[in-house]
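DM from R.C. (forwarded with permission)

"hey, sorry to bug you on a friday — could you get me a structure for this? deadline for the figure draft is monday and I only need the backbone to look sensible"
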Amino acid sequence: MNRKKFISAGVGIGLTTQVLEPKKKNTTAVNSFRLAHLTDLHILPKKGVPEKISAAFADAKNKGADAYLVGGDCIMDALKESKSDTRAQWKLWHEVTENLELPMHNCVGNHDVWGWAMKEGTKSNGEYGKNWAMEELKLSQRYYHFSKGSWDFLVLDSVFPSFQTKRGYTARLDEVQVRWLQETLSKISKKRNVCILSHIPIISFCPFFDGKNEESGTWVIPHEWIHIDARSIKNIFKKYKNIKLCLSGHIHLHDHVRYLGIDYLCNGAVSGNWWNQKEPAYQEFPPAYVMVEFFEDGRFSSEYIPFQS
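My reply, with the result:
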């Protein structure tokens, strides 16, 4: 989310999810695996920050993660920053992640994209847009599909330019990606389970409280906070009963919304309040990641895990 100054009809809504045993995998007869969802890490050259991010990755590994789902906003900001500052942030990111022993599945966050909130003159540069971020994150595609166990994971690109606003982006899918999403879902066996990962929430309660969005006398939720095309995505999803779970970040708050049989988890932020030392928690939510255990039969459980370095 673009806050350089460190600002941020369902069946049920909750602020907690099912709690896992912290250091061992489920030992029932049903096979399972664990993925650690770490989002909004916002690395920057500030004392202690790279070490805390390293500690989060290590903590997840020690708690039995089989791989990492990295939900975007890996660096503090590239939307407005210079090339040299952006390059320095990515250098730090690689120093922290290059020796990780577990696989890492990345998606692009808005703050990973260089130049969208700059003046018009920068937009013709060859490194403009997502290309630089994709190269740093080793992504050959903006959106992609991978499988593990009985689950299929679809990683979406939910960030697109919006030059009418100072933040420089909006939350949506493009037409090419929508076609890919429909085609991919149609090819996945109905006997398999599906999880969707996006940086920005598709459906979430958190955006209501991310800022004083009621000050005008009615609720006004910015198009940058939640997918503006959520209704059309919902209409695609409702055709597929095997979509079980959608994971997102971006808001730095944590919620669990169940809507039309799908669980939507907005999973806080590793950086909490953008690494604010005096107030590390953003509203009521400290720096944290979420561990998700995926079961062969389509069930899942999750744990919101605050951590300390």
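R.C.: lifesaver. Residues 31-306 form a domain with the Purple Acid Phosphatase; chain A, domain 2 fold (CATH 3.60.21.10).
me: no worries. The first helix runs from residue 49 to 62.
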